[in-house]
Design a protein that fits this description.
The chain is α/β, with parallel strands linked by helices. It has two domains: about 300 residues, FAD/NAD(P)-binding domain (3-Layer(bba) Sandwich), CATH 3.50.50; about 190 residues, FAD/NAD(P)-binding domain, CATH 3.50.50.60. Helix content is about 30%, strand content about 20%. It contains 14 helices and 23 strands. Strands 1, 2, 3, 4, 5, 6, 17, 18 and 21 form a nine-stranded mixed beta sheet that branches. Strands 7-16-8-9-12 form a five-stranded parallel beta sheet. It is globular and about 70 Å long. The two termini are about 25 Å apart. About 45% of the residues are buried.
Protein backbone atom coordinates (compact mmCIF):
# COMPACT_ATOMS: atom_id res chain seq x y z
CA UNK A 1 0.00 0.00 0.00
CA UNK A 2 1.52 3.36 -1.00
CA UNK A 3 1.36 6.55 1.12
CA UNK A 4 -1.45 8.10 -0.93
CA UNK A 5 -3.63 5.03 -0.43
CA UNK A 6 -2.83 5.08 3.28
CA UNK A 7 -3.79 8.77 3.58
CA UNK A 8 -7.01 8.24 1.64
CA UNK A 9 -7.97 5.23 3.71
CA UNK A 10 -7.13 6.98 6.98
CA UNK A 11 -9.55 9.79 6.18
CA UNK A 12 -12.44 7.35 6.44
CA UNK A 13 -14.11 7.07 9.84
CA UNK A 14 -12.78 3.78 11.21
CA UNK A 15 -14.78 1.10 12.93
CA UNK A 16 -13.28 0.29 16.34
CA UNK A 17 -12.82 -2.99 18.23
CA UNK A 18 -10.99 -3.82 21.42
CA UNK A 19 -9.10 -6.58 19.59
CA UNK A 20 -8.48 -7.36 15.93
CA UNK A 21 -7.42 -10.91 15.11
CA UNK A 22 -5.67 -11.35 11.77
CA UNK A 23 -6.27 -14.78 10.22
CA UNK A 24 -9.14 -17.29 10.44
CA UNK A 25 -7.16 -20.52 10.35
CA UNK A 26 -6.57 -22.86 13.27
CA UNK A 27 -4.88 -20.12 15.32
CA UNK A 28 -7.44 -17.40 14.64
CA UNK A 29 -10.45 -19.61 15.37
CA UNK A 30 -8.78 -20.72 18.60
CA UNK A 31 -8.14 -17.08 19.50
CA UNK A 32 -11.83 -16.29 19.00
CA UNK A 33 -12.85 -19.09 21.35
CA UNK A 34 -10.51 -17.82 24.07
CA UNK A 35 -11.59 -14.19 23.71
CA UNK A 36 -15.28 -15.13 23.91
CA UNK A 37 -14.74 -17.31 26.96
CA UNK A 38 -12.15 -15.41 28.97
CA UNK A 39 -12.66 -11.79 27.82
CA UNK A 40 -16.41 -11.75 27.15
CA UNK A 41 -16.70 -7.98 27.65
CA UNK A 42 -14.15 -7.21 24.91
CA UNK A 43 -15.23 -6.65 21.32
CA UNK A 44 -13.22 -8.29 18.54
CA UNK A 45 -13.31 -9.18 14.89
CA UNK A 46 -11.28 -11.59 12.75
CA UNK A 47 -9.96 -10.32 9.42
CA UNK A 48 -9.26 -13.10 6.91
CA UNK A 49 -7.72 -12.33 3.54
CA UNK A 50 -9.11 -15.38 1.78
CA UNK A 51 -12.67 -16.24 0.83
CA UNK A 52 -13.02 -18.99 3.41
CA UNK A 53 -11.78 -19.96 6.85
CA UNK A 54 -9.14 -22.61 7.38
CA UNK A 55 -5.86 -20.97 6.41
CA UNK A 56 -3.50 -23.80 5.46
CA UNK A 57 -6.34 -26.27 5.07
CA UNK A 58 -8.24 -24.03 2.67
CA UNK A 59 -5.15 -23.02 0.68
CA UNK A 60 -3.52 -26.38 -0.09
CA UNK A 61 -5.44 -28.59 -2.49
CA UNK A 62 -2.81 -31.05 -3.69
CA UNK A 63 -3.61 -34.78 -3.67
CA UNK A 64 -3.40 -36.46 -0.30
CA UNK A 65 -3.23 -33.22 1.74
CA UNK A 66 -3.31 -34.27 5.39
CA UNK A 67 -2.07 -33.43 8.86
CA UNK A 68 1.52 -34.28 9.66
CA UNK A 69 0.80 -34.67 13.36
CA UNK A 70 -2.07 -36.31 15.22
CA UNK A 71 -5.36 -34.44 15.38
CA UNK A 72 -5.78 -34.98 19.11
CA UNK A 73 -3.00 -32.42 19.55
CA UNK A 74 -3.36 -30.48 16.29
CA UNK A 75 -7.00 -30.07 17.26
CA UNK A 76 -8.02 -27.78 20.10
CA UNK A 77 -7.82 -28.49 23.80
CA UNK A 78 -11.45 -27.33 24.10
CA UNK A 79 -12.87 -29.19 21.08
CA UNK A 80 -12.34 -32.98 21.01
CA UNK A 81 -11.31 -34.67 17.80
CA UNK A 82 -13.88 -37.46 17.47
CA UNK A 83 -13.12 -38.95 14.04
CA UNK A 84 -11.54 -42.38 13.87
CA UNK A 85 -8.40 -41.33 12.00
CA UNK A 86 -5.96 -39.30 14.07
CA UNK A 87 -3.94 -38.46 10.93
CA UNK A 88 -6.64 -36.67 8.98
CA UNK A 89 -7.08 -35.44 5.43
CA UNK A 90 -7.61 -31.79 4.57
CA UNK A 91 -11.40 -31.94 4.03
CA UNK A 92 -11.87 -33.64 7.42
CA UNK A 93 -9.86 -30.92 9.11
CA UNK A 94 -11.95 -28.25 7.38
CA UNK A 95 -15.10 -29.99 8.64
CA UNK A 96 -13.67 -29.89 12.17
CA UNK A 97 -12.93 -26.17 11.90
CA UNK A 98 -16.40 -25.44 10.57
CA UNK A 99 -17.92 -27.40 13.46
CA UNK A 100 -15.85 -25.35 15.90
CA UNK A 101 -16.93 -22.07 14.33
CA UNK A 102 -20.60 -23.12 14.48
CA UNK A 103 -20.49 -24.65 17.97
CA UNK A 104 -18.96 -21.55 19.56
CA UNK A 105 -20.82 -18.98 17.45
CA UNK A 106 -17.63 -17.56 15.96
CA UNK A 107 -18.88 -16.99 12.41
CA UNK A 108 -20.38 -13.51 13.12
CA UNK A 109 -16.94 -12.27 14.13
CA UNK A 110 -15.20 -13.36 10.91
CA UNK A 111 -14.82 -11.06 7.91
CA UNK A 112 -13.65 -12.90 4.82
CA UNK A 113 -11.82 -11.31 1.89
CA UNK A 114 -10.27 -8.73 4.24
CA UNK A 115 -6.55 -8.88 3.53
CA UNK A 116 -4.64 -6.84 6.12
CA UNK A 117 -1.74 -4.98 4.49
CA UNK A 118 -0.71 -2.37 7.06
CA UNK A 119 -1.02 -1.61 10.76
CA UNK A 120 -0.05 1.72 12.35
CA UNK A 121 0.36 2.28 16.10
CA UNK A 122 -0.07 5.68 17.77
CA UNK A 123 1.22 5.91 21.35
CA UNK A 124 -0.70 9.11 22.15
CA UNK A 125 -4.02 7.34 21.68
CA UNK A 126 -2.82 3.73 22.28
CA UNK A 127 -4.60 2.69 19.09
CA UNK A 128 -3.70 0.48 16.14
CA UNK A 129 -5.07 1.61 12.76
CA UNK A 130 -5.45 -1.40 10.51
CA UNK A 131 -5.71 -1.16 6.71
CA UNK A 132 -7.26 -4.05 4.81
CA UNK A 133 -8.05 -4.71 1.17
CA UNK A 134 -11.49 -6.10 0.41
CA UNK A 135 -11.35 -8.41 -2.60
CA UNK A 136 -7.92 -6.97 -3.45
CA UNK A 137 -9.36 -3.58 -4.40
CA UNK A 138 -11.34 -1.53 -1.87
CA UNK A 139 -9.48 -0.26 1.21
CA UNK A 140 -11.20 -0.49 4.57
CA UNK A 141 -9.84 0.93 7.82
CA UNK A 142 -10.50 -0.39 11.31
CA UNK A 143 -8.97 0.52 14.65
CA UNK A 144 -8.28 -1.51 17.75
CA UNK A 145 -6.56 -1.36 21.10
CA UNK A 146 -4.84 -4.70 20.66
CA UNK A 147 -3.64 -6.60 17.58
CA UNK A 148 -3.46 -10.40 17.67
CA UNK A 149 -1.64 -11.86 14.67
CA UNK A 150 -2.78 -15.40 13.79
CA UNK A 151 -1.79 -15.45 10.14
CA UNK A 152 0.90 -18.13 10.17
CA UNK A 153 4.45 -17.88 8.93
CA UNK A 154 4.41 -18.51 5.18
CA UNK A 155 3.39 -16.45 2.20
CA UNK A 156 0.02 -17.15 0.60
CA UNK A 157 1.23 -15.50 -2.60
CA UNK A 158 3.28 -18.51 -3.60
CA UNK A 159 5.71 -21.16 -2.45
CA UNK A 160 9.46 -21.34 -2.78
CA UNK A 161 10.15 -22.17 -6.42
CA UNK A 162 13.86 -21.97 -7.25
CA UNK A 163 15.05 -21.30 -10.76
CA UNK A 164 16.03 -24.54 -12.46
CA UNK A 165 18.28 -24.32 -15.55
CA UNK A 166 16.37 -25.04 -18.75
CA UNK A 167 12.99 -24.75 -17.06
CA UNK A 168 11.52 -23.01 -20.09
CA UNK A 169 12.48 -25.94 -22.32
CA UNK A 170 10.20 -28.48 -20.62
CA UNK A 171 7.17 -29.31 -22.77
CA UNK A 172 4.97 -30.64 -19.98
CA UNK A 173 3.29 -29.09 -16.93
CA UNK A 174 5.33 -27.66 -14.05
CA UNK A 175 3.25 -27.48 -10.87
CA UNK A 176 3.99 -26.07 -7.44
CA UNK A 177 1.79 -27.76 -4.79
CA UNK A 178 0.67 -24.39 -3.42
CA UNK A 179 -1.00 -23.70 -6.81
CA UNK A 180 -2.25 -27.20 -7.63
CA UNK A 181 -4.80 -26.99 -10.49
CA UNK A 182 -8.12 -28.66 -9.77
CA UNK A 183 -8.26 -30.09 -13.30
CA UNK A 184 -4.72 -31.53 -13.44
CA UNK A 185 -4.90 -34.99 -14.99
CA UNK A 186 -1.92 -37.14 -14.01
CA UNK A 187 -3.49 -40.51 -14.79
CA UNK A 188 -1.23 -42.66 -16.95
CA UNK A 189 1.52 -40.03 -16.93
CA UNK A 190 5.12 -39.96 -15.75
CA UNK A 191 5.46 -37.58 -12.82
CA UNK A 192 8.64 -36.33 -11.14
CA UNK A 193 8.16 -34.75 -7.71
CA UNK A 194 11.16 -32.61 -6.71
CA UNK A 195 11.63 -32.60 -2.95
CA UNK A 196 11.68 -34.90 0.03
CA UNK A 197 9.76 -32.96 2.66
CA UNK A 198 6.25 -33.45 4.02
CA UNK A 199 4.55 -32.26 0.81
CA UNK A 200 6.48 -34.59 -1.48
CA UNK A 201 6.06 -37.50 0.93
CA UNK A 202 2.30 -36.87 0.82
CA UNK A 203 1.87 -36.36 -2.93
CA UNK A 204 3.93 -39.32 -4.18
CA UNK A 205 1.81 -42.16 -2.67
CA UNK A 206 -1.42 -40.23 -3.29
CA UNK A 207 -0.93 -40.16 -7.07
CA UNK A 208 1.16 -43.33 -7.53
CA UNK A 209 -1.88 -45.53 -8.09
CA UNK A 210 -3.10 -43.47 -11.06
CA UNK A 211 0.10 -42.19 -12.65
CA UNK A 212 2.17 -44.39 -14.93
CA UNK A 213 5.08 -43.87 -12.54
CA UNK A 214 6.06 -41.34 -9.89
CA UNK A 215 9.67 -40.46 -9.07
CA UNK A 216 10.58 -38.55 -5.92
CA UNK A 217 13.76 -36.65 -6.82
CA UNK A 218 15.72 -35.44 -3.81
CA UNK A 219 19.10 -33.82 -3.34
CA UNK A 220 19.41 -35.54 0.05
CA UNK A 221 17.23 -37.83 2.19
CA UNK A 222 14.82 -36.84 4.96
CA UNK A 223 14.19 -38.73 8.18
CA UNK A 224 10.84 -40.54 7.96
CA UNK A 225 8.74 -42.59 10.33
CA UNK A 226 5.67 -44.73 9.58
CA UNK A 227 2.70 -44.60 11.93
CA UNK A 228 -0.89 -45.86 11.58
CA UNK A 229 -3.45 -43.18 10.77
CA UNK A 230 -5.70 -44.69 13.44
CA UNK A 231 -4.30 -44.52 16.99
CA UNK A 232 -5.21 -47.88 18.55
CA UNK A 233 -4.65 -46.67 22.13
CA UNK A 234 -6.83 -43.62 21.54
CA UNK A 235 -9.53 -45.85 20.07
CA UNK A 236 -9.56 -47.97 23.23
CA UNK A 237 -9.67 -44.94 25.50
CA UNK A 238 -12.62 -43.54 23.54
CA UNK A 239 -14.40 -46.87 23.81
CA UNK A 240 -14.19 -47.06 27.60
CA UNK A 241 -14.30 -43.43 28.72
CA UNK A 242 -16.75 -40.58 28.08
CA UNK A 243 -15.56 -37.90 25.68
CA UNK A 244 -14.94 -35.29 28.40
CA UNK A 245 -12.41 -37.63 30.01
CA UNK A 246 -11.05 -39.33 26.90
CA UNK A 247 -10.04 -36.16 25.05
CA UNK A 248 -7.68 -34.64 27.65
CA UNK A 249 -6.22 -38.08 28.40
CA UNK A 250 -5.44 -38.81 24.73
CA UNK A 251 -4.11 -35.30 24.22
CA UNK A 252 -1.85 -35.62 27.26
CA UNK A 253 -0.62 -39.06 26.11
CA UNK A 254 0.22 -37.86 22.63
CA UNK A 255 1.84 -34.67 23.88
CA UNK A 256 4.01 -36.67 26.28
CA UNK A 257 5.23 -39.00 23.54
CA UNK A 258 5.90 -36.10 21.15
CA UNK A 259 8.05 -34.41 23.77
CA UNK A 260 9.70 -37.67 24.88
CA UNK A 261 10.67 -38.60 21.33
CA UNK A 262 12.00 -35.13 20.54
CA UNK A 263 14.10 -35.12 23.72
CA UNK A 264 15.46 -38.55 22.77
CA UNK A 265 16.61 -37.17 19.40
CA UNK A 266 18.57 -34.52 21.29
CA UNK A 267 20.11 -36.78 23.95
CA UNK A 268 20.58 -40.08 22.08
CA UNK A 269 20.38 -39.42 18.32
CA UNK A 270 22.25 -42.57 17.31
CA UNK A 271 19.70 -44.85 18.94
CA UNK A 272 16.85 -42.93 17.32
CA UNK A 273 18.56 -43.16 13.92
CA UNK A 274 18.87 -46.91 14.27
CA UNK A 275 15.19 -47.33 15.16
CA UNK A 276 14.03 -45.13 12.29
CA UNK A 277 16.17 -46.94 9.72
CA UNK A 278 15.06 -50.30 11.05
CA UNK A 279 11.46 -49.27 10.42
CA UNK A 280 12.22 -48.04 6.90
CA UNK A 281 14.07 -51.23 5.93
CA UNK A 282 11.20 -53.38 7.13
CA UNK A 283 8.68 -51.51 4.97
CA UNK A 284 10.53 -50.48 1.83
CA UNK A 285 11.85 -53.90 0.92
CA UNK A 286 15.29 -55.39 0.20
CA UNK A 287 15.71 -53.93 -3.29
CA UNK A 288 15.98 -50.31 -2.17
CA UNK A 289 19.28 -48.72 -1.14
CA UNK A 290 18.22 -47.39 2.28
CA UNK A 291 21.67 -45.98 2.98
CA UNK A 292 21.53 -43.79 -0.13
CA UNK A 293 17.86 -42.82 -0.27
CA UNK A 294 16.61 -42.82 3.34
CA UNK A 295 19.63 -42.06 5.55
CA UNK A 296 20.15 -38.31 6.08
CA UNK A 297 23.47 -36.80 7.09
CA UNK A 298 21.89 -34.82 9.97
CA UNK A 299 20.30 -35.96 13.23
CA UNK A 300 16.54 -36.53 13.51
CA UNK A 301 14.70 -33.27 14.23
CA UNK A 302 17.60 -31.09 13.11
CA UNK A 303 15.06 -30.80 10.30
CA UNK A 304 11.40 -31.71 10.46
CA UNK A 305 10.68 -35.43 10.69
CA UNK A 306 8.30 -36.66 7.97
CA UNK A 307 5.35 -38.77 9.01
CA UNK A 308 4.37 -41.58 6.61
CA UNK A 309 0.82 -42.70 7.53
CA UNK A 310 0.42 -46.47 7.27
CA UNK A 311 3.79 -46.55 5.49
CA UNK A 312 2.07 -45.53 2.25
CA UNK A 313 5.17 -44.04 0.62
CA UNK A 314 7.22 -47.13 1.41
CA UNK A 315 4.47 -49.36 0.03
CA UNK A 316 4.40 -47.38 -3.24
CA UNK A 317 8.18 -47.72 -3.59
CA UNK A 318 8.08 -51.41 -2.76
CA UNK A 319 5.35 -52.06 -5.34
CA UNK A 320 7.28 -50.26 -8.08
CA UNK A 321 4.63 -47.61 -8.72
CA UNK A 322 6.99 -45.03 -7.23
CA UNK A 323 10.75 -44.71 -6.89
CA UNK A 324 13.24 -42.48 -5.10
CA UNK A 325 16.22 -40.90 -6.87
CA UNK A 326 18.90 -39.08 -4.89
CA UNK A 327 20.79 -36.75 -7.20
CA UNK A 328 21.19 -33.13 -8.27
CA UNK A 329 19.50 -31.40 -11.20
CA UNK A 330 21.74 -30.48 -14.12
CA UNK A 331 18.94 -29.04 -16.24
CA UNK A 332 15.34 -29.40 -17.30
CA UNK A 333 14.98 -30.76 -20.83
CA UNK A 334 12.12 -30.92 -23.30
CA UNK A 335 11.12 -34.34 -21.97
CA UNK A 336 12.15 -34.31 -18.31
CA UNK A 337 15.16 -33.67 -16.07
CA UNK A 338 18.83 -34.28 -16.72
CA UNK A 339 20.78 -35.14 -13.55
CA UNK A 340 24.42 -34.43 -12.67
CA UNK A 341 25.07 -38.19 -12.62
CA UNK A 342 24.21 -38.32 -16.33
CA UNK A 343 20.86 -40.03 -15.77
CA UNK A 344 17.73 -38.60 -17.38
CA UNK A 345 14.28 -38.74 -15.76
CA UNK A 346 11.48 -38.79 -18.32
CA UNK A 347 8.46 -36.78 -17.23
CA UNK A 348 5.14 -35.51 -18.48
CA UNK A 349 4.56 -33.50 -15.27
CA UNK A 350 7.10 -32.00 -12.87
CA UNK A 351 5.94 -31.09 -9.35
CA UNK A 352 8.23 -28.64 -7.56
CA UNK A 353 7.58 -29.56 -3.92
CA UNK A 354 10.48 -27.31 -2.98
CA UNK A 355 9.04 -25.66 0.10
CA UNK A 356 7.46 -22.48 1.40
CA UNK A 357 8.28 -18.80 1.30
CA UNK A 358 8.20 -17.60 4.90
CA UNK A 359 7.07 -14.16 6.00
CA UNK A 360 7.24 -12.17 9.21
CA UNK A 361 3.83 -11.58 10.78
CA UNK A 362 1.50 -11.99 7.86
CA UNK A 363 3.44 -10.34 5.02
CA UNK A 364 2.27 -6.83 5.99
CA UNK A 365 3.75 -3.50 7.06
CA UNK A 366 3.91 -2.38 10.68
CA UNK A 367 4.49 1.21 11.75
CA UNK A 368 4.97 2.36 15.34
CA UNK A 369 4.77 6.11 15.99
CA UNK A 370 5.70 6.92 12.42
CA UNK A 371 8.60 4.49 12.04
CA UNK A 372 8.44 1.26 10.04
CA UNK A 373 9.32 -1.80 12.12
CA UNK A 374 11.96 -4.24 10.97
CA UNK A 375 11.25 -7.26 13.15
CA UNK A 376 14.75 -8.57 12.50
CA UNK A 377 15.95 -5.74 14.77
CA UNK A 378 13.70 -6.79 17.64
CA UNK A 379 14.01 -9.38 20.38
CA UNK A 380 11.21 -11.87 20.88
CA UNK A 381 9.42 -11.71 24.22
CA UNK A 382 8.49 -15.25 25.34
CA UNK A 383 8.18 -16.17 21.66
CA UNK A 384 4.90 -14.22 21.36
CA UNK A 385 5.68 -10.48 21.41
CA UNK A 386 8.48 -8.14 20.33
CA UNK A 387 10.69 -5.58 22.03
CA UNK A 388 9.32 -2.02 21.86
CA UNK A 389 6.23 -3.07 19.88
CA UNK A 390 3.12 -2.22 21.94
CA UNK A 391 -0.14 -4.14 22.23
CA UNK A 392 0.77 -6.85 19.75
CA UNK A 393 1.05 -10.62 20.12
CA UNK A 394 1.55 -13.18 17.36
CA UNK A 395 1.06 -16.93 17.26
CA UNK A 396 3.93 -19.14 16.14
CA UNK A 397 3.43 -22.81 16.95
CA UNK A 398 5.92 -25.62 17.36
CA UNK A 399 8.17 -26.99 14.67
CA UNK A 400 8.76 -30.18 16.68
CA UNK A 401 5.19 -30.81 17.88
CA UNK A 402 1.64 -29.87 16.95
CA UNK A 403 1.17 -26.20 16.09
CA UNK A 404 -2.01 -25.87 18.14
CA UNK A 405 -0.38 -26.81 21.43
CA UNK A 406 1.39 -23.46 21.39
CA UNK A 407 -1.46 -21.59 19.69
CA UNK A 408 -3.72 -22.49 22.64
CA UNK A 409 -1.07 -21.25 25.10
CA UNK A 410 -0.63 -18.00 23.19
CA UNK A 411 -4.38 -17.30 23.17
CA UNK A 412 -4.57 -17.97 26.89
CA UNK A 413 -1.69 -15.55 27.48
CA UNK A 414 -3.38 -12.82 25.41
CA UNK A 415 -6.49 -13.13 27.57
CA UNK A 416 -4.40 -12.93 30.75
CA UNK A 417 -2.67 -9.83 29.38
CA UNK A 418 -5.92 -8.12 28.36
CA UNK A 419 -7.55 -8.85 31.70
CA UNK A 420 -4.52 -7.49 33.58
CA UNK A 421 -4.69 -4.29 31.55
CA UNK A 422 -8.37 -3.91 32.35
CA UNK A 423 -7.79 -4.56 36.06
CA UNK A 424 -4.96 -2.01 36.27
CA UNK A 425 -6.57 0.59 34.02
CA UNK A 426 -3.66 0.58 31.60
CA UNK A 427 -3.92 0.92 27.85
CA UNK A 428 -0.46 0.01 26.60
CA UNK A 429 1.61 -3.15 27.17
CA UNK A 430 5.11 -3.06 25.69
CA UNK A 431 8.02 -5.47 26.24
CA UNK A 432 11.11 -3.35 26.89
CA UNK A 433 14.74 -4.30 27.27
CA UNK A 434 16.23 -3.35 30.62
CA UNK A 435 19.55 -1.52 30.72
CA UNK A 436 21.54 -4.72 31.29
CA UNK A 437 19.79 -6.47 28.41
CA UNK A 438 20.35 -3.97 25.60
CA UNK A 439 23.68 -5.48 24.57
CA UNK A 440 22.88 -9.15 25.22
CA UNK A 441 23.89 -11.63 22.55
CA UNK A 442 21.55 -12.29 19.66
CA UNK A 443 20.52 -15.83 18.81
CA UNK A 444 18.34 -17.09 15.93
CA UNK A 445 14.55 -17.16 16.37
CA UNK A 446 14.79 -20.96 16.42
CA UNK A 447 17.99 -22.78 17.39
CA UNK A 448 19.21 -26.11 16.03
CA UNK A 449 16.84 -26.37 13.07
CA UNK A 450 18.53 -26.57 9.68
CA UNK A 451 15.60 -26.94 7.26
CA UNK A 452 16.10 -24.79 4.18
CA UNK A 453 12.76 -22.97 4.44
CA UNK A 454 13.66 -21.85 7.97
CA UNK A 455 17.26 -20.96 7.20
CA UNK A 456 16.17 -18.78 4.26
CA UNK A 457 13.89 -16.79 6.57
CA UNK A 458 15.93 -16.70 9.80
CA UNK A 459 17.75 -13.39 9.06
CA UNK A 460 14.38 -11.64 8.72
CA UNK A 461 12.89 -13.00 11.95
CA UNK A 462 13.19 -11.51 15.46
CA UNK A 463 16.11 -12.61 17.58
CA UNK A 464 16.31 -14.47 20.85
CA UNK A 465 18.35 -13.11 23.71
CA UNK A 466 20.50 -15.09 26.11
CA UNK A 467 18.06 -14.99 29.04
CA UNK A 468 14.37 -15.12 29.85
CA UNK A 469 11.95 -13.69 28.92
CA UNK A 470 13.75 -12.94 25.63
CA UNK A 471 13.76 -16.57 24.51
CA UNK A 472 11.71 -18.83 22.27
CA UNK A 473 12.34 -22.30 23.72
CA UNK A 474 10.02 -24.26 21.39
CA UNK A 475 9.32 -26.64 24.29
CA UNK A 476 5.97 -27.18 25.93
CA UNK A 477 6.97 -27.28 29.61
CA UNK A 478 8.78 -23.91 29.74
CA UNK A 479 6.11 -22.34 27.53
CA UNK A 480 3.37 -23.46 29.92
CA UNK A 481 5.26 -21.89 32.81
CA UNK A 482 5.95 -18.66 30.91
CA UNK A 483 2.55 -18.15 29.29
CA UNK A 484 0.14 -19.68 31.79
CA UNK A 485 1.77 -19.32 35.21
CA UNK A 486 4.39 -16.56 35.24
CA UNK A 487 3.31 -13.10 36.32
CA UNK A 488 2.06 -10.96 33.45
CA UNK A 489 3.61 -7.91 35.14
CA UNK A 490 7.17 -9.25 35.21
CA UNK A 491 9.08 -5.99 35.07
CA UNK A 492 9.81 -6.45 31.37
CA UNK A 493 6.30 -6.11 30.00
CA UNK A 494 5.74 -2.42 30.72
CA UNK A 495 2.22 -1.15 31.37
CA UNK A 496 1.28 2.50 30.78
CA UNK A 497 -1.69 4.63 29.80
CA UNK A 498 -1.87 6.58 26.57
CA UNK A 499 -1.29 9.85 28.42
CA UNK A 500 1.94 8.54 29.99
CA UNK A 501 3.48 6.66 27.08
CA UNK A 502 7.23 6.66 27.83
CA UNK A 503 9.55 8.81 25.75
CA UNK A 504 12.05 5.93 25.71
CA UNK A 505 10.12 4.25 22.88
CA UNK A 506 12.83 3.88 20.26
CA UNK A 507 10.23 4.15 17.48
CA UNK A 508 8.90 7.49 18.72
CA UNK A 509 9.30 10.45 16.37
CA UNK A 510 10.99 13.67 17.52
Amino acid sequence: MDDSTSRTASSVRAEHHDVIVVGAGISGIGAAYHLKKFCPDRTFTILEGRGDIGGTWDLFRYPGIRSDSDMHTLGYSFKPWTAEKSIADGPSIMDYLRETVAEYDIEPTIRLNHKVVRAEWDSTSAIWTVHALINESEVVVLTCNFLFMCSGYYSYRGGYDPEFPGRERFNGDIIHPQQWPEDLDYSGKRVVVIGSGATAVTIVPAIAGDAEHVTMLQRSPTWMVARPDVDPVAAKIKRFLPQRLAHPLIRAKNTFFQQFFYKKTRTDPETVKGKLLQGVRALVGPDVDVEKHFTPTYNPWDQRLCLVPNGDLFAAVRSGSASVVTDSIESFTETGISLTSGEHLDADIIVTATGLELVTLGDMDFVVDGATIDFADTFTYRGVAYSDVPNLVSTFGYINASWTLRADLTSAYVCRLLNHMKKTGTSQATPRLRADEVNMSRRPWIDDFSSGYMQRMMPMLPKQGDREPWTNPQRLAPDKKALLKSSVDDGVMTFTTSQTAPSTNRYATN
